[in-house]
Design a protein that fits this description.
260 residues; 9-stranded mixed β-sheet; Glycosyltransferase family 2 protein; Nucleotide-diphossugar_trans
């Protein structure tokens, strides 16, 4: 049983070096970083720390990049169905022991898809709203208007592992065979809602995500500006529409060769 960590860098080289997390994780696990633009300095740093690098096909979306990493892990690194594939943001920090503990819990409980407890500060006292209920059109609409978000689950009330609808794509842990069964991320999304979608499709086949509140991690989230008429607002709007259509069975997921 091997743990494979999938990271996509969008000019995150400086942050990756400052955190030092991936270098530590690479001492124990298989870490793969796909750069999404030219980052010469980062490539040197990653190779120095025995981190696998994919330096091709720039400018792809979040899901597409992670699917490429998954295929790389299978084809080049020997990942098999009993291993674990973890989608991991460059701005997440976790100790190796905590990550190993999570995967051990997944193995013991035959858990196919899991999320961890993310926090916004080093003291792990400010929670990241990283677990939620599946949204409806009305909830999306209210969120866009700044009228609150009723999908957020209050993590302070969660004291033991529970099944939830979805967790942030900043950190998602899959049994490798389950990621393949799902066909990976839907590449019809460029950015936003890929995490909701893949958790929804997993839930639909009877395998909900399990949230482990005692596995704590730092997430230095810096959300892009979604001001009206910005490209991020446009991507978000398109993703919301795609998810709502997927939810009612109108839209089918797009994947890449090599995934089911």
């Amino acid at each position: 049983m091997t743990i494979f960590i999938s990271v996509v860098s969008h000019l995150h080289g400086e942050l990756i070096e400052q955190l030092g997390c991936l270098a530590k994780l690479a001492e124990r696990f298989k870490v793969v970083v796909k750069v999404n633009s030219e980052e010469t300095y980062l490539l040197s740093y990653l190779k120095l720390h025995n981190i696998n690098v994919i330096d091709t096909s720039y400018g792809l979306g979040f899901g597409h990049n992670n699917n490429i990493i998954y295929n790389y892990c299978e084809d080049k690194l020997g990942m098999n169905s009993n291993d674990y594939f973890i989608v991991f943001n460059p701005d997440v920090y976790v100790e190796s022991e905590a990550l190993a503990e999570l995967v051990n819990k997944m193995f013991e409980n035959n858990c196919q898809l899991a999320g961890a407890n993310l926090f916004k500060n080093k003291e792990l006292t400010i929670p990241d709203n990283s677990i939620r209920h599946f949204p409806t059109f009305l909830q999306f609409f209210k969120s866009f208007l700044g009228l609150g978000n009723s999908t957020i689950i209050d993590k302070s009330k969660v004291l033991k592992p529970i099944e939830v609808d979805w967790a942030s794509g900043s950190f998602l842990a899959f049994k490798a065979s389950h990621y393949r069964l799902l066909g990976g991320f839907d590449q019809g999304y460029f950015m936003y809602c890929e995490d909701i979608d893949i958790c929804f499709r997993s839930n639909k086949i009877g395998i909900p995500l399990t949230f482990y509140p005692d596995i704590k991690m730092l997430h230095l989230a810096k959300h892009a500006n979604r001001a009206l008429f910005s490209k991020h607002f446009y991507w978000h709007l398109c993703s919301v529409g795609r998810f709502l259509l997927t939810k009612v069975g109108v839209t089918k997921p797009k994947s890449i060769i090599g995934l089911a």
